[in-house]
Give the backbone structure.
Amino acid sequence: MQAWSSRYDFMLWFIMAKKRHHFLPKAYLKPFCDEEGKLHVYRKDKPEQEIRLSPDNTGFHKYYYSQATPSGRRDDDTLEDLFSEYESEWPGIVLKFRARENVNRHLDTICAFIGLQRARVPAARDACERILAENVKATIRRMRDQGDLPPLPFGLGDLFDHVDVAIDPHQSIHAMSYS
């Protein structure tokens, strides 16, 4: 729980905090908009149903990159600000692509932007959390096989093969730097 020194501090944080964390950057999506500034979006579970959305309303989760600080507060901005450094250059780079200009001096930014698109999306974070969960299950099985755990109740010998392991979502944020 966060401790606020005053009501004003809380209200200022609430107003200033970035809530809508886009895993698909608006700067990337804007060139794909139609004449009305809308994207044609299709859900994976209903591909026949078209949804028209603005880039601001596409590809985000609330507080997706938020992290707890050592003081117990929540940092909503650090990762968003970091990503914005690369995203802010993207519209100019797209214009250079369209004009068929040389973009070699922007290759670091282009590669970082592409890498971020791979690492920061929900599918990558979900995969990371599944891998971490399987690692926990493998550790438990190994401990069981080595006799480091007490015996399970009768009839539940395969219990560890059916346990769902929840991984702290912040662990997948930390894994982004390794993706």
User: Anything to note?
Assistant: The radius of gyration is 22 Å.
